[in-house]
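Trying the structure run again after the queue cleared.
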Amino acid sequence: MNSTIENFPSVEILLSDSNRKQCIERLKNIKLPQRELNETNKTRAAVLIPLCLVKEELSLLYTLRKADLKRHSGQVSFPGGMEDSTDSSLEYTALRETEEELSIPKEEIKLWGSGSIYVGKEFSVLPVVGYLGDIDVKKLKPNPNEVDVVFSIPLKHFCDPINCRSTQFRYQNQTYVLPVYINAQYRVWGITALITHILLVSLLPKHYKHKLHLIKPVLSKVSV
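Done. Tokens:
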């Protein structure tokens, strides 16, 4: 058995007040790769990183978005969406969107805190951490207009290197490396994988060992 999984901390330790505070402090200190703020991406959004107990294992809850949506159709994501003018804060945006997508009342979500805003290509997003308590995924009632599937992945899954990969791409002369998580019900990639990564780094610094390394291209001189 992988040693990081064998010595995995208990649910009580992970959910303790001291660990929660340390997690949010680390999360706030992580600086995400940023694009320049412009007219396209200045729109603000928030996502909830939903921690929950599933069959007595601390897990993360994900959604598979409907294939006919205008934005991010058919993608694995955390519940969330664009800020409304009536929202009191981006944290409220994350809670409101979670209730709209998964029918989980805002009042039943224990808000832990939030990280730093990530400025992406289309919008700026704030990751917000919340605890949902004990969840039976099969009994959830997702919004059929937005969500195709709801599924969970235990935190232990991410701490096994066999389930962790990375992908590298270029955008506007910048090279980015993002994590990819495999061997679960669905592959987790893109901004959702990046937000998953920073949560795991913050919550499980001694057990989550996946590193994102930039691989430089091999250049060879060829005579023609």
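The longest strand covers residues 44-54. Worth checking whether this holds up in the mutant runs.
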